[in-house]
Amino acid sequence: MVVVSTGAIKRAVFAGVSATLFVVATEVLLASNDLLKFLCGGIVVIFVVLTSIINHVRMFIAVRAHRNEVLGVTVSNQQRATILRREKTVANHVMILSAALLICVVPAGLIRAFQSPNVQLYRSFFPWALSITFMNASINPIINIWWNKELRNAIRSLLSC
Question: Would you tell me how many other CB atoms lie within 10 Å of the CB of residue 41?
């Protein structure tokens, strides 16, 4: 069972709505000024990337806080080693997910940012770059299944029915 706080849902909805409104305002109101469009597009890309990275870092901090709680309790050295190993695994997982996001989002952001001087380049490569951006949604579950043995076993048992 997954427990999601209403505060987290409200923050996620607020972030999505504000980013959408910002993009719409950029496209409609600033369509004639290329420099402002470039700056606003860059802000949107930075916002999307930073939001994801901040969320992944917060997950890592939550794992570390849990580890500190466990370390405050008397546990054996073997249990402490297990906790440290899990923390390293989570840190690597967060780093790989963030790198995958950057690899998938940055090409579209760069091509979009420099669309005015190179219209032909934009028309040729932006659909491909946007496809790579959307592919991130498919890559994340693969990374999660690869890193999480329990998730892998749950998917395997679900598919074997």
Answer: 21
Query: How many whole angstroms from its chain centre is CA 115?
Result: 25
According to DSSP, residue 30 is labeled S
Q: What is the pLDDT averaged over residues 90-107? A: 83
CA 110 – CA 104 distance, rounded (Å)? 11
Please check whether residue 67 is in contact with residue 91, taking contact to mean a CB–CB distance below 8 angstroms. no
Over range 27-45, report the average pLDDT: 68
One-letter amino acid at 6 equals: T
Q: How far apart are CA 48 and CA 101, in angstroms?
A: 10
**For the chain, domain boundaries:** 33-159
Exposed (0-12), middle (13-18) or buried (19+): which is 8, by Cβ within 10 Å? exposed
> Distance between CA atoms of 72 and 74, rounded to whole angstroms?
7
Sequence-ordered alpha helix ranges (H) in the chain: 6-29, 34-72, 77-113, 119-147, 149-159
Most confident of 3-17, 39-53, 144-158: 144-158
Amino acid letter, residue 127: P
